Amino acid sequence: MKRVSKVVAYIVRGGRVVVFAHGDHDTLALAGIQVPAGTVQPGELPEDAVLREAYEETGLPGLRLVRYLGVGEYDGRPSTDAVHVRHFYELAVGADEVPEHWTAYETGDGAHEPIRFDLSWLPLDQAHVLAFGQGSHLARLLD
């Protein structure tokens, strides 16, 4: 099975974390509540990838890296025949004001229709609901 390098972003402010759901795509809507995450591109450092992915999926300006939280593996089967080697990071928002709820669109490389992200803030003590094992490093935010 192939191994794919991934990043996961916990964007934290005031005891809450940015989460999203996909509201306009039937298949993606079934994916549940998630945090920004994505694939590390060839030649890209994970710390650069997490900032890129977080911005692409949230549209939030001025994101900055706070700290590295660790690495974990996620078996992507049956949806993909790959093990995701995930690097988890805590990020902070540089903007003074961020809405409670907002929508962003990831356009990627233009190979597909823009993907809608319906974003909001979720209290950390409720973030155990994250899909795909994305909550595995939440406790590290308390260190």
Automatic annotation (TrEMBL):
Q: Name one GO molecular function term.
A: hydrolase activity
Q: Which UniProt keywords apply?
A: Hydrolase
Kindly indicate whether the keyword Thylakoid belongs to this entry: no
Q: Gene3D superfamilies, per this entry?
A: Nucleoside Triphosphate Pyrophosphohydrolase
Extract the InterPro entries matched here. Answer: Nudix_hydrolase, NUDIX_hydrolase-like_dom_sf, NUDIX_hydrolase_CS, NUDIX_hydrolase_dom
The Nudix hydrolase domain, residue ranges: 2-143
UniProt lists the family membership as follows: Belongs to the Nudix hydrolase family.
Q: Know the name of this protein?
A: Nudix hydrolase domain-containing protein
Query: Which species is listed as the source?
Result: Catellatospora methionotrophica
